[in-house]
Amino acid sequence: MDIPRDKLLEIYERMVTIRKFEDRVHDEYAAGRIPGFVHLYAGEEAVAVGVCAHLSDADSITSTHRGHGHCIAKGVDVNEMMAELYGRATGACKGKGGSMHIADIDRGMLGANGIVGGGVPLACGAALTAQVQGTGAVAVSFFGDGGANEGTFHEGLNLAAIWKLPAIFVVENNRYAQSTSVKYASAGGDIAARAQSYGIPGVTVDGLDLFDVYETTGAAIDRARAGEGPTLLECQTYRFYGHYEGDTQGYRSREEIEEYRTKHCAIQRFRDRVTEQGLLGDDELDAIDGQVADAIEASVEFAANSPFPDASEVTTDVYVNYEEAI
Amino acid sequence: MGEERTMSLGLAIREALHQEMERDTSVIIMGEDIVGGAGSDEPGAEDSWGGPMGITRGLVGKFGHNRVRDTPISEAGFVGAAVGAAATGLRPIAALMFIDFFGIPMDQIYNQGAKLRYMFGGKAKVPMVVRALIGAGVNAAAQHSQSLYSIFTHIPGLKVVIPTTPYDAKGLMISAIRDDDPVFFLEHKTLLGEKGHVPEEPYTVPLGVAEIRREGDDVTVVAIAKMVNVALSAAETLEAEGVSVEVIDPRTLSPLDGETILDSVEKTGRLVIVDEDTPRCSLATDIAALAADEAFYSLEAPIKRITAPHTPVPFSPTLENAYIPSQERVVAAIQEVVSV
Ligand SMILES: Cc1ncc(C[n+]2csc(CCOP(=O)(O)OP(=O)(O)O)c2C)c(N)n1
Ligand SMILES: [Mg+2]
Question: What pLDDT score does A325 carry?
């Protein structure tokens, strides 16, 4: 599948934005400027970007506790994202959600999620809207290897399969759920194989290879849009940081992390391939690196200079309409 | 008596788990990453997580994988399995991590575990404990900060326990494990580091018995979980103004020690309830109704409830601070009722 030049540039820009955003959030968190719980997506960029490169604002995604990458891949503004993590009034959710609930429904980003497996049925619902209204849109649910052990995963796949919903289920198998290895927690081998039980295609994807993710997702989306129903993609990937910021990571070795960072970096792999094939030049890629670095710096400035929400905001946005004083 | 031994509330829970698992081989524990490192080949990976705050670390080394189990992220599965195991001879402890996740196993809890005994005409018992973190205060946002204890208190067949001191944490956990009914043992995440005296030998603190944390004559304050500390600080502040505040910690929400609360209200004639949970159909409302029913003629002022607003828990520090009942609000409420 040939990817147009502009698309390749956009893909690179989004992947680098995720990486630099997460590296910066790691530092900001350590410096005590970001409160709450934070889970970083660095290392897994090719999955979110390779999938979302096919989507427009009309298509929906659901995400996880590790949601920053999905936001950026779906085009959410990084200023609003950083301000949200900072808990500011200018944030994507006015400071009400934070990292674990960051969302932008106008971009079709139906939220990070504090509940593992919580997004799978929501994506079925977005696909149902598309099917009922005949919009041609698709819905993608991202979730982890751990999330695939929740009942919502099984119920969601079955529902999507019997109704032939235009949905794509993307397992981000980064080998661990918190400290627990997928080898311990998941019966039956590949998670992709679970698709067979529901009579839908299940494909194992090299989630560190942008091109593999892009091509496989393209086929799944074509199938979904043609009314043939959902697909399960298992993207094998790796997270560079701990499960959450503060995780001491006694369950995996420094060598393992280093090996992925140096030998299996999805961004480096993408860069090597596009330059070797003469699709993009180092100059233009370097220029993107510079622009992204500036954008991330600007996002921190924007966040730090934004006001905190007023305390009166606590009681707004609970309902659309409610007679009783809260 | 020698030096008093002190430890954190979290470690007091750990000690209770150790002592009960030692005493009774039918006690097992399971939950996500309560050991940690399952399936990893890395040396030292085992026990690298130990559940929230590492409280369950060390259990697997002593009691083995047969009785100490990491689970997949499948709460309906393992909490339901705890119900089934409890009904057939074990005393399982299911660690749910955050109470906010209860929606996933809830059918197994309220339609199965809570009702088996009644539906079976008293021929079954379900001696299990569900451990979970509750409460706001660490900017963990809407899905990791809720209190929710009123929901379990509402359900016949369940018991609900919230320790606020290390001493109580150990004694209540031992009671909860030995109890023959399903018990929700809820740990406020900001209290786990609280330090206090904990005797080394096993002991019990009975379920259904409140503790008067501070004696006073002018007003009764019933406070739940972290709000006990807020009420105690408010009482201290008001002492300087000559207001004598009695602070009651129910410790167990179901069964509730109504007698201790009513005796106190009869003495003081005034009642303020401080509850971090949302106000509708809440413990605050429940306790207010109890006093209105049973101690109406002793009351010299309207009952005041200080609660969170009827909203989800917000993320931003400024919003979360406004959400959690503050000492200032408690002081103002007490001043209001004593001025009547
Ligand atoms: C219902 C529910 N159970 C447990 C948790 C606690 N928790 C948060 S993330 C996580 C691990 C998720 O692992 P995985 O799905 O593989 O995603 P990853 O973190 O690896 O991206 C757990 C157990 C939760 N948030 N929600
Ligand atoms: Mg994972």
Answer: 84
Q: What is the pLDDT of residues A134-180, one digit of tens each?
A: 999 999 999 999 999 999 999 999 999 999 999 999 999 999 999 99
How many C-beta neighbours within 10 Å does residue B222 have? 30
Q: Please give, rounded to a whole number of angstroms, the shortest distance from the CA of A82 to a CA of chain B.
A: 13
Predicted confidence (pLDDT) per residue in B171-187, tens digit: 999 999 999 999 999 99
ipTM > 0.95 for the complex: yes
Residue A1's pLDDT is what?
A: 66
At B3 the pLDDT is: 76
Contact B45 A250 (CB under 8 A): yes
Of A113, A150, A178, the CB nearest to B74: A150
Measure the CA–CA gap between A185 and A187, rounded to whole angstroms.
Answer: 7
Domains and CATH numbers, chain A: 5-325 (3.40.50.970)
**Ligand in closest contact with the CA of A149:** 1
Write out the DSSP string of B289-333: HHHHHHSGGG-SS--EEEE--SSPPPSSHHHHHHHSPPHHHHHHH
3 state SS of A133: helix
The domain spans of chain B are 2-197, 211-338
* Active-site entry in B65, B144, B154, B188: B144
How far, in Å, from the CA of A168 to the mean position of ligand 1?
Answer: 20
Task: Pull the structure tokens for residue B282.
Answer: 């809440």
Residue B144 designated active-site: yes
**B182 vs B207: CA distance, rounded Å:** 12
Q: Could you say which of B104, B140, B319 has the minimum Cβ distance to residue A96? A: B319
Q: What is the mean pLDDT of residues B78-106?
A: 98
Domain B211-338 sits in CATH 3.40.50.920:
yes
Q: What residues in B contact A29, CB-CB < 8 Å?
A: none
- What pLDDT is recorded for position B60? 98
pLDDT digits (tens, 9 = 90+) for A20-45: 999 999 999 999 999 999 999 999 99
Helix (H) or strand (E) holding B275: strand B271-275
Copy the structure tokens of residue A157: 């796949």
Q: A220 to chain B, minimum CA–CA distance in Å?
A: 27
pLDDT, tens only, B129-140: 999 999 999 999
CB atoms A326 and B310 under 8 Å: yes
DSSP B157: T
Match domain B2-197 to its CATH number in 3.30.420.40, 3.30.70.3270, 3.20.190.10, 3.40.50.970. Answer: 3.40.50.970
Helix, strand, coil % in chain B, rounded to nearest 5: 40, 20, 40
Is the four-CA dihedral B199, B94, B178, B209 of positive or negative sign? positive
| Cα–Cα distance list, A177 to A39, A324, B94 (Å) | 12, 42, 18
**For residue A326, what pLDDT band results from cuts at 50, 70 and 90?**
confident
d(CA A23, CA B300): 60
| Rounded Cα–Cα distance for residues A157 and A151 (Å) | 10
User: Is B82's pLDDT higher than 80?
Assistant: yes
Side chain identity at residue B265, one-letter code:
V
Beta bridge partners of B71: none
Asked if the domains at B2-197 and B211-338 fall in one CATH topology, the answer is: yes
Chain mean pLDDT for chain A: 98
